[in-house]
């Protein structure tokens, strides 16, 4: 069974449109004007059980609206949606027992009581049997290393400690599907690494499907084999990271430190006919090489005329590629 199956999923919002000036304000009191905004535009999304999928896009691209529909908070305007075999909005009571949700900016733990007591309340809400609860909680406490502050109020925890407790809370009832919205926001490098390692374990041991929404693309690279990219409410890419790099990557960068100064025009003349673009001045230059142009091709043209003191080759990162797509638009990469 697929974890998520969405076809033609669409969400429109009716937004109040105010008119300018004092006269406009009086007119708005008597006759308000509205306009429709399409936040999610006929997307098709299929996620298999056990996948870890990154769901990315700029602010306003429609990510949060999609997640709210997938978790049953919002009802779609049109389209069909099945999550863990349920209609999330119409079969909400049964459905929520099959999912876990962690929002980096919101807490599901009670602020003024001990973490352990929050877990007990969640146990009752999800009707988890005693034996299953104790066994699974012990495992979560051990792997997430939260035993030392289980008896502290949530308000006294650091951000890193709270996020680890949020993960434990979301996984207490062993959900088949876990939604993560910015789970490592504001965390230091070590805590991020520990959380990533834990999520990989959960996915491997329990087959938990994970849908990760984040602006930190290092999370995507560390966890996800597949990425779905959203722009203006539409899916513009759905596939693995390697295909993203090869399809929309800007090739490699060759960074050169030369012994003597040379002009950009001289470098362009030397590399005429090669698929690359030069940047820099003086003795330091960067060649942005398109796919198909090799480092040896560039050096064979330059070495007879210049002396290279240092050389470094860099691959375009996922963050570079995504930033370029957002900046230039999809039409530059299709």
UniProtKB/TrEMBL annotation:
Transmembrane segments: none annotated. One of its GO terms (molecular function) is ATP hydrolysis activity. Residues 24-257 form the ABC transporter domain. It holds the Pfam family ABC_tran. The keyword Nucleotide-binding applies. PANTHER family: ABC TRANSPORTER ATP-BINDING PROTEIN, ABC-TRANSPORT PROTEIN, ATP-BINDING COMPONENT. This is ABC-2 type transport system ATP-binding protein. It comes from Melghirimyces algeriensis.
